[in-house]
Amino acid sequence: MHTAILSIDGGGMKGIISAVALAKLETLLQQYSQNPNARIGDYFDLIAGTSTGSILTGLYLIPENGHPKYSAKEILDFYLTLGPSIFDKQSLYPLFGSKYMSANFEDILKNYFGLLKMSNLLKPCLITSYDTTSREAIFFNAETGKKDPERNVLVWQAIKSSCAAPTYFPPVCIKNPPECPSCYIDGGVVANNPALCAVIEALKLPTCSAIGDIYLMSVGNIKSNTSYYYREVKKWGLIEWAVPLFSILLNSNAQTVDYQLESLFNNIGKSEQYIRMQLTTSEKTPALDNYSDTAIQYLLKCGEEMVKTYSKDLQHFAQILVSEKK
Q: Strand 46-49 to strand 3-8: parallel, antiparallel, or no bridges (unpaired)?
């Protein structure tokens, strides 16, 4: 038996792209298993997500009578219908605080996850964040919650923490344990691509003893290869660097993780057990908070492009997942 891992990058509304690709994967799982009720959460042993990826992670693993509550198509609809509400209420003073208020987002998360705790999710999972109080990376997971009740946070709290992108949303305070309140910000500053973190987490499972035991699907979205030339960059100061620096850090982080994992799986002769799906464009891509009709249609189109580009990989991985469950 192998351990199947799904890892989902951060990216705000670009999560639509990941959701489209995973909806296709679920359709293939239903086809190959001849089970119309097959769900993403049925076939992966661990799911990891950062920021928007943490939303998908949580939604895929909400339990209902011992099975995943939502289909991947329903979860895609979550982005299409509720995405605009997440970024709707803008702060009155964005220059002196976050761009958006987080009340709408919190209400949406509470509506879906209620009082569900990390330990209540269907499968082991990993949600990334960063604690500015202790200055350390945070990895919310079900296993820690089971062992230490004080750290068994509510799922919506973990997701909100992972999505608290600096300048976009205010940081999140979780008084858990109560005597040591923390200040959490977006998991993208730790691992916008959490795939390597997910591998480490999987190796803690009793069913997984080596990287060779792992099948890993890492789902990105789209990155822009917009060039910044020396003649321009050499004149930049704090203001000019503000926007591109954040994008550069997130993209380089994700690329580094992909390089490391590809090398690891290649070196042990298991290259077919690692799949990375990521689109690249020379065009400017929509901002992570762009929920305009034009942006959403563009992201849906990108999702279909990802499905087309990685069609064989999706089919191959779906066949493996189904065969592993027999």
A: parallel
Range of the structural domain that residue 110 is part of: 3-325
Question: What's the number of domains the chain is made of?
Answer: 1
CA angle (129, 96, 87) in 5-degree steps = 55
Find the CATH number of the domain harbouring 190: 3.40.1090.10
State the Cα angle at 143 between 142 and 148, rounded to 5°: 100
Q: What is the pLDDT of residues 244-279, one digit of tens each?
A: 887 888 888 899 999 999 999 999 999 999 999 999
| Exposed/middle/buried for residue 155 (C-beta within 10 Å: 0-12, 13-18, 19+) | buried
Report the Cα 62 to chain-centroid distance in Å: 15
* 204: three-class secondary structure by DSSP: coil
CA distance 69 to 106: 20
Residue with tokens 């030339």: 229
Q: Kind and range of the H or E element at 158?
A: helix 155-162
List pLDDT tens digits, range 36-50. Answer: 999 999 999 999 999
